[in-house]
Amino acid sequence: MGKLINGIFGGFHGRIGNLVGYTLKGKYIIRKIGRSSKPLTPGRKANCQKMTLVNEILSPSLPAIQVGYRLMVAGTDKNEYNEAVSYNKRNALQGAYPNLSLDYSKVLLSMGTLPAAIHPTISQTDDKITFNWEPTADQAYQYGNDRAMLVVYFPDLKVSRCDLIGSKRIEGAHTLNIDQEHVHERMEAYISFVKDNGREVSDSAYAGALNARKTLEILEKADPEAERSNRDSDYAGSDFDIISYREYLLASGIGVPEPKSGPDKIITSRWSIYVLKSRVSDQRIGDCYLRLQQNDKFTAEMKVSIAHEEQRKGYAKEASSVMISLLFNKSEVNRIVKIVDAQDSAAIALMKSLGFREEEHFKESAFSDGKWISEYQFALLKSDWV
């Protein structure tokens, strides 16, 4: 139920039907809520993809956005995040729908009138990330006490590490720590400067990338007239199609965030994700995950997860077979490894039926559900796959 503010000529707070009213920066806002049953137009689909890409980096970097765009919206009814979205949608995307992507070098996490960082760079020693920039003598008096604001974004994890009060501009360097589990992840880095009194800020500057070669590359055929285009969607099972997660999002027409795990969720840490989509129900019935082993572009790991209600139909073996062919036919991968619980007889039988060979037996190598469990490592070579 909505509540009138200042009588019938004022706004209202709350919900009335499919309308919701609220106050934003002193103004009454009324918006329509709910989803339309109309099919999305190509323009709306393109906008959904743009919003998804931009939000992926801006949302986890919100603390920096609030500082970096605060002065741009001061005295207006705009908010910092929306201003950042608007700018980056216009300027930080490349390509054309449905093949849009972020150009990280053009992303701006702050906007202002202070001088930007000169020749910023980034380097890494274990869990320490060091930013360097060039302090100049002519800036020392007026801008030397400006504080650095640093952001390290992890594209494969969709998280950011922000330090809002870093070293002074005159110092020329700042080191921040990251979580140990993130040290090998791909990173994109940005640096801004904020006046020591907080009344001015600079445009952010792109400091570079680290660990960039961590993604699994699926190769395309050179001949576009080949009988199959070699797209991900060309690989399918008898009752389901297998498509990339991004293709699945685009087909759905909504830019939803990636969940964290499970058959109807997503594992994001450097995994290339593929969705099993039923041809009968058009529903998602499982997922496949592929990734390269650390520092080895020729060895891949593979996981297949089938929704509980769709199990015992042979989908796990069929999907695994399809993904093995995808890896061996369209990438440089020469070896696929899989670790399974030593007590999981079904998984062990599946590995053997696909031609995997047992390589290692790790005794009490993992702690799960309050007890230590042993595991087997299986492997399959490209030369053994027919």
From TrEMBL:
Listed Pfam families: Acetyltransf_3, DUF6266
Keyword Transferase belongs to the record: yes
UniProtKB keywords: Transferase
N-acetyltransferase domain segment(s): 214-374
InterPro entries per UniProt: Acyl_CoA_acyltransferase, DUF6266, GNAT_dom, N-acetyltransferase
One GO MF term: acyltransferase activity, transferring groups other than amino-acyl groups
UniProt name for this protein: Acetyltransferase (GNAT) domain-containing protein
Lineage start: Bacteria, Pseudomonadati, Bacteroidota, Sphingobacteriia, Sphingobacteriales
